[in-house]
Amino acid sequence: MNLFSSPSLDDLTRLLKAWRFWVLGALIGSALGAAFYYIAPPPYRAKATVNVDFNFEQAFPTNTDRQDFYYLEREARKMVELAWSDDVLTQLSAPIEELRDGKLNLSQPAEAGWHFYADDVNPQKAEELASAWANAFAQKAQAEIEAGNLNEFIKLEVTQSANLPKERSIPLSDYLLAGASGFLVLAVFFVLFVKLK
């Protein structure tokens, strides 16, 4: 088959006849993905949680849905900026540049649990960073509420900052899938363009 020619029925037939090759290729690709996972494993990830309640009903009892949405978006944006602020990050035991360069991740809904993730090759260090970040954020946010910079009805509670779950930042299953998929893509080109005599 020419790379620039349109596929024919013979090409499809050749691909389907190579089903044993596909099965073997998927197994080999998965094994290569698993080997890469164990040779160069991803860092550990720990997750701490801060529960944030914006208390719409108390803050604006007569607002419309649109006003509630604007209030939620505005206050959540302020709090995200607060989480990444120098005041909060300087309380952690790592250089700020390193923390902002992928070591920390914040995943939050507008209301309820805000998840503070920390990645490190040492699971204990990841747990310490996530816990310290969540606690520093909650303390700073409470100070901002008391100073009047955030709405007074916002309530924060650190719900998970000790004995945090620690797991690899990328699961083994992703490596298995990537290995199998990559090998199968290469196998397509091999079956279509290499003719064994």
Give a short summary of the structure.
The protein has 197 residues and is of the alpha+beta class. Helix content is 57%, strand content 16%. Helix 2 crosses helix 8.
What does this 3D model show about the protein?
Helices cover 57% and strands 16% of the residues. It has helices at residues 9-17, 19-39, 56-59, 65-83, 86-89, 96-103, 123-147, 172-193; strands at 44-53, 104-107, 112-120, 155-160, 166-168. A hairpin with a 4-residue loop joins strand 2 and strand 3 (112-120). The mean pLDDT is 85.
Count the DSSP helices.
Answer: 8
**Which term fits the overall shape?**
elongated
The percentage of residues in β strands lies in: 15-25%
Largest sheet: 5 strands, antiparallel
Cα-to-Cα separation, first versus last residue: 15 Å
Q: Any key phrases for this structure?
A:
197 residues; alpha+beta; Alpha-Beta Plaits; 8 helices; 16% strand; elongated
